[in-house]
């Protein structure tokens, strides 16, 4: 059965006494052509191990299982995970975990199973899109690519450059690890229930090596976070106010001067390359 129609999704939920749970960001895709577009754009092939976050009713899971070597699907909702284990029992390359993706140890599982890298594919729950992406991009799980449905506004933030209103810690976290490109935008009518916002499918091609060099990437991340936590402040004030960084305003101003930047500059003006350099200079 093609689950991805409004009628079939509604019937599947009804027949199991379920309804879409808002608290888990459940907006099921009910347009098969969009599902196929996501799986095509992700470039899933017979050698790939796919990590699907939030398989829901399994509309995309089935397609992924047909194309990939293995599919690992992590679903927080116990009832949906149970339903999937029944409905997709025939997919013998599929492993379903009833877990919270933010707590599930993707790196540890890869190590224990000999998984070289994950290709992440998902229609993400929008209430935790940013934490999920940050944990993937900043975590240790090996990744070959990420193709996900997100709110259009989040897709814009991932691609934003310095000096724009969308530019922030997420833009820099993405750009340090991957090249981002929008596959397509998706209207609310492709989901059941319909979300209040437009969506976009974004593809992140993970670099084998980061595009900028930095001696201590963890410290650079901390600098970036501190800069955007107080984005209206000058960079020197924002960084010196951070309790963990423990650097003085004067040393930031000195470092900025050394880099040929205005000492009153705000963090939203610095590029990834400049953050990498600042982190090294401040060290
Ligand atoms: N993949 C399905 C589809 O496209 O129709 C469902 C997508 S729905 C937008 C998001 C899914 O993520 C839901 O199934 C929801 O229960 C699940 N989810 C929400 N929070 C989660 C979490 N922390 N960990 C794992 N899954 C989660």
Summed up, what is this model?
This protein has twelve helices and nine strands.
Using brief descriptors, characterize the structure shown.
single chain, about 280 residues, alpha/beta, Rossmann fold, Helicase, Ruva Protein, domain 3, seven-stranded mixed β-sheet, two-stranded antiparallel ribbon, 12 helices, elongated, binds S-adenosylmethionine
Structure description:
The chain has 283 residues and is α/β, with parallel strands linked by helices. The chain folds into two domains: 6-206, Rossmann fold; 217-282, Helicase, Ruva Protein, domain 3, CATH 1.10.8.100. The protein contains twelve helices and nine strands. A seven-stranded mixed sheet has the order 4-3-2-5-6-9-7. Helix 6 (129-138) runs parallel beside helix 8. The termini are far apart. It binds S-adenosylmethionine. S-adenosylmethionine binds at residues 24-29, 53-57, 59-60, 74-77, 80, 100-102, 123, 125, 128.
């Amino acid at each position: 059965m093609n689950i991805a129609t409004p009628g079939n999704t509604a019937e599947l939920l009804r027949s199991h006494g379920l309804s879409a749970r808002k608290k888990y960001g459940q907006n099921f895709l009910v347009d098969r052509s969009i599902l196929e577009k996501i799986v095509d754009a992700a470039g899933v092939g017979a050698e790939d191990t796919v990590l699907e976050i939030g398989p829901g009713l399994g509309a995309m899971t089935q397609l992924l299982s047909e194309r990939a070597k293995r599919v690992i699907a992590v679903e927080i909702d116990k009832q949906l995970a149970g339903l999937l284990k029944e409905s997709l029992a025939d997919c013998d390359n599929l492993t379903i975990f009833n877990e919270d993706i933010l707590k599930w140890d993707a790196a540890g599982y890869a190590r224990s199973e000999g998984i070289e890298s994950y290709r992440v594919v998902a229609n993400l729950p929008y209430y935790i899109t940013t934490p999920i992406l940050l944990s993937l991009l900043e975590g240790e799980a090996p990744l070959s690519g990420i193709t996900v449905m997100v709110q259009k506004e989040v897709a814009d933030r991932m691609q934003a450059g310095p000096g724009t209103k969308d530019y922030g810690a997420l833009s820099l976290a993405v750009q340090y690890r991957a090249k981002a490109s929008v596959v397509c935008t998706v209207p609310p009518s492709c989901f059941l229930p319909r979300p209040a916002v437009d969506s976009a499918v974004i593809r992140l091609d993970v670099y084998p090596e980061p595009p900028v060099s930095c001696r201590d990437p963890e410290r650079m991340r901390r600098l970036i976070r501190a800069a955007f936590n107080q984005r209206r402040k000058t960079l020197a004030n924002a960084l010196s106010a951070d309790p963990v960084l423990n650097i003085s305003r004067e040393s930031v101003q000195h470092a900025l001067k050394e880099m040929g930047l205005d000492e009153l500059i705000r963090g939203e003006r610095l590029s990834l390359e400049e953050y990498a350099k600042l982190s090294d200079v401040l060290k």
